[in-house]
Every structure is written in C-alpha cells, then in structure tokens.
Write a structure and sequence with these properties.
The chain is of the alpha+beta class. It contains 13 helices and 18 strands. The chain has helices at 26-29, 32-35, 71-77, 112-125, 153-157, 179-183, 189-194, 210-224, 228-237, 266-277, 290-296, 369-372, 374-387, and strands spanning 38-41, 51-52, 61-64, 67-70, 80-87, 90-96, 106-107, 246-249, 262-264, 281-282, 285-286, 309-311, 314-316, 319-320, 325-326, 334-338, 342-347, 352-358.
C-alpha cells in the first residue's frame, strides 16, 4: 500500500475546457498533456515500426440502416484525426486530418480501459493478484464499506460491480460529470471511487461504469506496489515496441486516470489491437495469456450479451467482456471504444486492426445514435475491413 498519509491535492479550479457541449475539440485532444498533470512513458528501447503492405484505396461508401453513406463525409463529420488500417500487421492505409499526425499523442478516453484490463491479466499471471474471483477490496482496503466491498475482480472487469452510476454524457447531473471536479483538484480519484454506493446485485447487470475501471487502476497500484505508468511501461510499452512517448493524465494526488487518460499515437494504440488479434503473443513472446485474451473479448454470461448492456440508462447494442466491447455477430470482432468515436477495431477473420481517432463535436449532446454514431462507426469500420478482401 502507498501509505496512510492523506494525499496533497491542488486547490479546486475549473477544467481547461468542457466536454459534451457541441464545440470542436480536436485542438484539445491533441495536447492534453499541456492542460493536465501527467506521467510519461518513454518510447520502447527497441521500437517496432509496422511494415508497409499493398496500399489500399478507401471505399466510396458504406451501408447503414438501409442507406448508402459517403465514407469521406463520415470522416469529416466525425472530426476524424487519424485513420490507420493494418492487415496481418502491415499498414494498408494511414492518413491524418485536423490536428492528428503520425507523431501526435491523442487522448484515448475509454480505449484506456482495454489497456488496464491487459495489465490486470498480466498481474494475475505474475502472481500479484491471486484470481479474478478475489474481492477487489482484499487488495484495495480503501474500498471497504463502498459499493466495491466484497465484489469480485471479475465482476468489476465486466462492468457488473453493482455500483450506482450514470454514464449519460448528455445529462449534466450524471455521475460521469463529477469526474471533472476530481480532475480540477476538488478530491482524488481514490476518494471518489471509495465513496460509491451499491445499487444492484454484483454480477447480475452490466451497467457501463467508468468508476469500475478506476477501481481496477487502484487494484494494479496496490497489488503490484507500482504506478500504472511504471507497470505499463515495463509490461506493454517496452515489449510491444511502442515508437513514441506516451502519457497518463493524473489527478491532484498523482493517480492515473485509468478510466480514460492514456495518450498515445495511432500506431501505438494499434499495437494492443495487434497483440489481442494474435491471442496475446508478440514476436514469439506471450505478453498476455491466451486464456485472458479469450475471456476478455467474449461475453461469457447472459447479462453481458449484446442488447443487455446498459450505458447511461439506455440499452447499448454491443456485448461486453473484460473491458472490451463485442459487436453483435459471429466472426469474432471486438473493439476498444472511447467517447468522441475513438476506436481500436479488430476483425480477426480478416487479420485486420483499424484505429480511428476522432473528436466528433456533437458527441454526448444527446444519447441518440444519430448524434454519437457508435453503431454507425462499427458499420463504417466493418466496410473498411471487408474492403481488405
């Protein structure tokens, strides 16, 4: 444990910008480390650059809800900053827009959750965590008496902790907006998570809850005795050959915003997609166990299936695994997804990994699909993957 002293936190001040209000955000998402405190992960000492494959032309259109729609318009309308398409580990298409670029660290938002899941799997393999069936409060004592007291790590991984939470970005009173006060220094992420109360029986309802991932970040911190930054640097950044410096945003006490504060380049985001496409193996080395990958990208029980998952009080059309989304279908697709249309989309049937980094300015101004465009993004990415054929 990190000690019993109360952490020093900065005096409260407003965040440097507001989300979910319809304003363009691409100028902010490309420079988050100028706006928030952060930790740095230096590039791998053995960087891996993806080989170039045969150059791919994008299709002209894609189909969504019975209509043919323009690929170019969708890229523009969702404020896309990066589009990277890999097939069998080779770059087939790469382009950058707005403030994006090959060397630009872009904010992950909730794509970070999938990286946290990988680190939990590694920590179990290394013996820092005994089992996903252990109560998370066994490792993080500050969660005793909270919604997470006695809740199994597995249920937290599956967004089924039972904690009361609303992730409705269009509702200014939703729990997710309270995180702005945390990042402004009013309290700490650990205190925030430790104050949460239960609502449903753990392991019965999949209600998307960013605080669950923050609890997993605390788990890594206490179980390994290391910061998330330090552990990820050793276990993912270095072995995956990440080419550029990466960053984690921090609260006022120096805790990583595990739920969404990772900043990487598009190519380095793609590397976790490649790792999971290859069942946890990278250049002949098993980085994450094959069993962990398989469990992570499959909804294993009924309440995790597509059409059962709740986001912000609404049914979401994808299933859920261990901090990975699973689109409906039978070809094994899975994705890391963040707000504003950040995607690491994996189609193993076509050996495809696609990264789309975006700043969809309309995102969160309504809970409607027509505004947030997540189902549409999946159909767009599916069309790009099929185009590889």
């Amino acid at each position: 444990h990190r000690g019993n002293k109360m952490p020093k936190i900065s005096s409260q001040k407003p965040p440097p910008f507001e989300l979910y209000n319809g304003t363009p955000q691409h100028e902010n998402f490309s420079r988050m480390i100028e706006l928030f405190p952060h930790n740095t992960m230096t590039a791998s000492p053995a960087p891996v650059e993806f080989d170039r494959g045969r150059e791919l032309d994008l299709p002209v259109d894609y189909e969504f809800e019975g209509h043919r729609k323009s690929v170019e318009n969708f890229i523009n309308e969702t404020d896309t900053s990066a589009l990277l398409i890999l097939q069998d580990g080779k770059v087939r298409f790469e382009n950058y827009f707005l403030t994006g670029g090959q060397d630009v660290q872009w904010i992950s938002w909730s794509m970070a959750k999938s990286f946290i899941s990988a680190l939990v799997g590694i920590a179990i393999e290394e013996g820092f965590i005994n089992s996903v069936n252990d109560p998370i409060s066994h490792y993080v004592h500050s969660l005793t008496g909270s919604a997470y007291d006695g809740v199994r790590i597995k249920e937290v991984l599956q967004m089924s902790s039972g904690a009361r939470w609303s992730e409705d970005y269009s509702d200014p009173d939703a729990d997710v907006h309270k995180l702005a006060a945390v990042m402004a220094g009013a309290t700490t992420l650990e205190s925030f998570v430790s104050s949460m109360q239960g609502e449903t029986e753990p392991g019965t309802v999949c209600q998307y809850n960013s605080a669950d991932t923050q609890a997993l970040g605390l788990l890594l911190n206490y179980a390994t005795g290391r910061s998330v930054t330090d552990y990820m640097k050793e276990k993912l950044v270095d072995p995956l050959g990440m080419e550029a410096t990466g960053h984690w945003l921090l609260d006022g006490a120096g805790m990583e915003l595990a739920l969404g504060g990772l900043n990487l380049t598009a190519r380095d985001f793609a590397k976790i997609g490649e790792l999971y496409r290859n069942k946890g193996q990278w250049n002949g080395q098993q980085i994450v166990s094959k069993d962990w990958v398989n469990m992570s990208v499959k909804p294993s029980v009924d309440h995790l299936q597509a059409g059962r998952v709740i986001v912000g009080g609404h049914i979401f059309p994808f299933g859920y695994g261990y901090q990975w989304w699973v689109p409906e279908g039978d070809i094994g697709e899975f994705a890391a997804i963040g707000v504003y249309n950040q995607f690491i989309f994996v189609d193993p049937s076509r050996d495809a990994v696609i990264v789309k980094l975006s700043a969809n300015r309309a995102y969160g101004t309504s809970p409607d699909e027509g505004i947030n465009r997540e189902r549409e993004t999946v159909e767009f990415l599916r069309t790009l993957a099929k185009n590889l054929d």
